[in-house]
Amino acid sequence: METIEIISLTLGVAWASGINLYAAVLVLGYFGMTGDITLPPGLELLSDPIVMAAAGLMCMVEFVADKAPGIDTGWDALHTFIRIPAGAVLAAGMAEGLDASQAAEFAALLVGGGLAATSHFTKASSRVLINTSPEPFSNWTASITEDLVVIGGLWASLHYPWLFVAGLIAFTLLVIWLLPKIWRTLRAYSGLSVNFRWKKSNSSRLRTIRWKTKMSRSSQKAKVMLRGEA
Predict the structure, then answer these.
(1) Helix, strand, or coil here: 215?
(2) Are 12 and 150 a contacting pair, CB within 8 Å?
């Protein structure tokens, strides 16, 4: 592979790992098995049938979990500790194909971890926002789109590396602009939700106090009437 193809795949696998790690591993393994790419020595095991079968199994599990509102957020929270380090390791492994120094491989590890974290937190934040909608179709649409983007992105990183790198730069700029807006929206929604619960709780307490006051007055009237009759 040419240098630009290796750089593109290094960035691509890190980015894709933050969205769907298992699909990224499965696609890389498939590329290596079919001979589309020559995997570096550290990543040759990805094309092993056992690794591909495990990645395929977990990919199916994620395919189901990623489409259930609420479960997808829990799944993303758990994978914060899996996708980011895995993306860093895969990026460093791809960088071995450049025959670069250990410093360059470590740099790839850092950049890969950063890219994986960026795509992961973008996905997780947008999913929390989508889950505020009661219908499930938006979750299904987002999940299927993410899966197709991962597969298509890795394919593009191999066959159209310059185009993929340009798209990745555009994605990074978009995230820098979009993420703060998503977090502000989530914070505002969380504040409204807490305020609504507070008002609802206070309303319930007020009704209880009114009921108790009414019952107390009725009891006092009854006692006065009994005394008058006596």
Answers:
(1) helix
(2) no
